[in-house]
Amino acid sequence: MKNFWNERYAEKGLAYGQAPNVFLTEVVDLIKPEGKVLVVGDGEGRNGVWLASEGFDVTSVDYSNVAIEKITALAKESNVNINAVCADLNDWDWPVEEFDAVVAIYVHYPSASREAMHHKMLDALKPSGKIIMEAFNKAQLDYPSGGPPVIDMLFSEQELKDDFTRLNIQEVYEKIVYLNEGKYHVGDGAIVRLIGEKNS
After folding, report:
1. What pTM was estimated for this model as a whole?
2. Homologous superfamily of domain range 2-198
3. CA-CA distances (angstroms) from residue 175 to 6, 135, 140?
């Protein structure tokens, strides 16, 4: 899988564009101003670099070394500082109670590791920290706009509710949206979104 992502990110240009995720831009005001933000699976850095440009202290993690090189280059081009970490989220030594927000945009993993991954995200948050997530839901197999081609790596609203019981969930819902994110997320997509605050 790492080779797949290295090959994708080695292509010319940015696979998912340079503009940040639309949902993230709509809800960014929920994050503490100038707070510490962890962006997991940040790919080429479109979301982490944008957050840094908005004044946040950003750590972006991805396990593709090619992605990390692109994050670093994009941050330099954008005149922002970003802590870019090359790591497999399954094996990473996750910080505990360090971040004011965790952002996960189209980060997918098998069901066997889903609950543990979401608990690590929770553990990384300070009390009252926020989680902002957008991902494909299980209906995405019927749409051509990207995402994993196996249902086991797609999320449902109920699965997120079950995983984030230590979260004061403010919003969680599934819907169809039009995606226009680079060349790999284009067209109608079946997504699930979550916003929540860690219980103090």
Report:
1. 0.96
2. Vaccinia Virus protein VP39 (3.40.50.150)
3. 30, 11, 10
